[in-house]
Amino acid sequence: MNTPLFWSGAALFCLTTPSVIAATQAPAIMSAERLQSSQTIDSPAYFVSEKLDGVRTRWTGTELRTRSGFTIQAPESLKAGLPPVPMDGELWLGRARFSEMSGLIQRADPQDPLWQQVQLQIFDLPAHPGNFSERLDALGQLIGAVDNPQIRLLEQTRGLSREQIDQLLEQTRRSGGEGLMLHHFAAHYVNARTNLLLKYRGYDDAEAEVVGYTRGEGKYEGMTGALIVETTEGLRFRIGSGLSDAQRATPPEIGSLVTYRFNGLTSQGLPRFARFVRIYNSEI
Questions:
Q1: Which of 199, 228, 243, 279 could connect to 32 by a Cys-Cys bridge, CB 3.0–4.6 Å?
Q2: CB atoms inside a 10 Å sphere around CB 62
Q3: DSSP readout, 1-19?
Q4: For the residues 135-156, what does the mean pLDDT come to?
């Protein structure tokens, strides 16, 4: 469905007023609920895309910001050709390269040559009044007119059965991907968490505070064997899996937050098969 009238001069003015892209506030974004493996959904009603392991980004129409409102010091070449309308996307270096992408943003150096490898994968138009199918059509027109190889429209597929989605998830994870995103075709953009946008990974993740360490044994003698962490609910457990040798030699500091993945909960309510992912950064 084409929606060219939405991109009239009047509409563009509405999209780029300060009330929409206030420079001092974190952008209001649409966030996903988790899809559980046992959960039933109307699968063909959802557009499916890869859940990129990058940094969620809002193009305000004039600058790039993280989901917390932090201004990203990206080179002008990356932003060249972007239209003056708000867009949601992901700054992405490739699968399993989140730490590199996060570090690049934190260095705040637009001259860093690593920026040349970054893609800005665009997937939504937060100020568009239509449903997701209509927004996706409008995005195709906009990004199709952008002559910049670093700007991409995130590939979306609709009409898959649940079995096909599960197969795609397994294929994506075997290839090093993080998971899938499912966006209901009729969903309008809301500045909140919604079950019309789902993230599907086959596992859960959460954050916990590092409160101690265990001593390493065997090949890890003299290093950290596991992190002792505590959740906001006061539950304590150990995370030993997922730590690199470098992280065992210099573990996350006491008091820092870490993200971990797990597969459900034990009968005692503790994360099952908890494994370290990364140090949590609230700005990214």
A1: 199
A2: 12
A3: ---GGGGSHHHHHHHTSTT
A4: 97
Separation between Cα atoms, residue 134 and residue 136, nearest integer Å: 5
How many Cβ atoms from other residues are within 10 Å of residue 171's Cβ? 10
Nearest-angstrom CA–CA distance, 226 and 210: 10
User: Is a pLDDT exceeding 80 seen at residue 184?
Assistant: yes
CATH (domain of 46)? 3.30.470.30
**Contact call for residues 220 and 201 (beta carbons, < 8 A):** no
Query: Residue 13: is it exposed, middle or buried by C-beta count within 10 angstroms (0-12/13-18/19+)?
Result: exposed
* Residue 169 half-sphere exposure toward CB, CA atoms < 13 A: 19
Percent of the chain exceeding pLDDT 70 equals 92
Query: Which tokens hold the place of 142?
Result: 């906009």
- Give residue 37's pLDDT band: very low, low, confident or very high (50, 70, 90): confident
Mean pLDDT, residues 201-212: 90
Residue 17 placed within a domain: no
pTM of the model: 0.74
pLDDT at 127 over 80: yes
3-state secondary structure of 163: helix
Tokens of 88: 């949601």
Q: Measured between alpha carbons, how far is 200 from 257 in angstroms, rounded to an integer? A: 23
Contact 155, 21 (CB under 8 A): no
Euclidean distance between CA atoms 7 and 83, whole angstroms: 11
pLDDT-derived band at 88 (thresholds 50, 70, 90) equals: very high
Predicted pLDDT at 102: 94
CB 36 within 8 A of CB 200: no
d(C-alpha 150, C-alpha 92), whole Å: 10
Q: Are residues 159 and 49 in the same domain?
A: yes
Residue 168 shares a structural domain with residue 262: no
